Amino acid sequence: MSVVSLLGVKILNNPAPFDAKYQFEITFECLEPLQKDLEWKLTYVGSATSSEHDQELDSLLVGPIPVGVNKFIFEADSPDLKRIPTSEILGVTVILLSCSYDDREFVRVGYYVNNEYDNEEMNDDPPAKPVIEKVRRNILAEKPRVTRFAIKWDSEDSAPAEFPPEQPEADAVEDDGTAYGAEEAELEAAEAEAEATEDVKENGEDEEMGGAEDTSGPAAAKAEDEESDAGSEDLEAESSGSEDEDIEEEEGEGEADEDMDMGEDAPQTDAGKEPHMQGQHQGEVMVH
User: Fold this and answer.
1) pLDDT tens digits, one per residue of 227-285
2) Sign of the alpha-carbon dihedral angle for 85, 87, 90, 94
3) How many alpha carbons fall within 13 Å on the CB side of residue 183?
4) Which of 112, 126, 269, 275 qualifies as a cystine partner to 140, CB 3.0-4.6 A?
5) Model-level pTM greater than 0.70?
6) How far is CA 95 from CA 22, 150, 249, 288, in A?
C-alpha cells in the first residue's frame, strides 16, 4: 500500500511558447507521517531514438509532509536547445513528471508534447534552422500515462531497501482493456468450437442407431414364434413316421404327401413373413 497517493496534476500554462516555464499544480494525499521529504522531478525527452538527449529540467524537495491532502505549484525551466538535436526540436516528444521518496521512485506521469510553429505557412514549409521564437508547445494534458511502483516506506521495515528495481519495461505493458478484450474473444471462440464438436458427435451417434436393425419388440417376438412353430411341425412329422412302422405303404405315402404339403406351406409362411418385417423396418427408418 502506498503511503502517498497522487490525486491530480493541473497544467497552468498550456499551450505556451517553447521557451516558457512549465507550471504544474500538484495535489496528493499522505496517509501517515514521513521522516523524509518527497522529491519531485521533471524530465524532458530530447530524442525518441536515444536517452542521451534526455535532460532534467528541474527538481523540488517538498517537506515536512503533513498527514492529509496537500497541494503545491511546481515550476521548471524550458529545455536547453543545445542538448536537443535540431531535427528533434519540432514534432512530438514526451515530458515525465515523477516523485520519489528516499531515492525510490513510486509514481511517474508521462505527457505527449507537440512542438510546432504558430502559423500554417511555417508549418507547411519549415525553415532549415528552427525559429524558436515562433515555436509553441502543446501538452496533451487530457491523456496522461500514470505508472506506479511499490516501494519501501518508513513503516515497512521488512521490505528490501532497494525495492523496486529498475522497471523500464513498465511503459511497454499493454493496456488492461485491450488484453481483456482479446482473452474474452479467444474464450468465446474456444467455447463455440467445443459446442460444434459435441453436435457433430451426437448427430453421428443418432445416425448409427437409426441404421441398426431392431432386434426387440413385437415384430421380433412374432418372427421367433413363427420359426419355433415351423420347427415343431417338422419334429412331429418325423416322430409320427417312426412310431407307425407297420402301417401300409399307401398310408406312408399319404403322410409323405402331407409332409410335402407342409414343406410347401413353410416357405410361403416365411415369404409372407419377410415382406411384413421389411415394411416394418422401412417404417422405423422413416421415423428416424
Assistant:
1) 445 444 444 444 444 444 444 444 444 444 444 444 444 444 444 444 444 444 443 43
2) negative
3) 7
4) 112
5) no
6) 10, 22, 129, 73
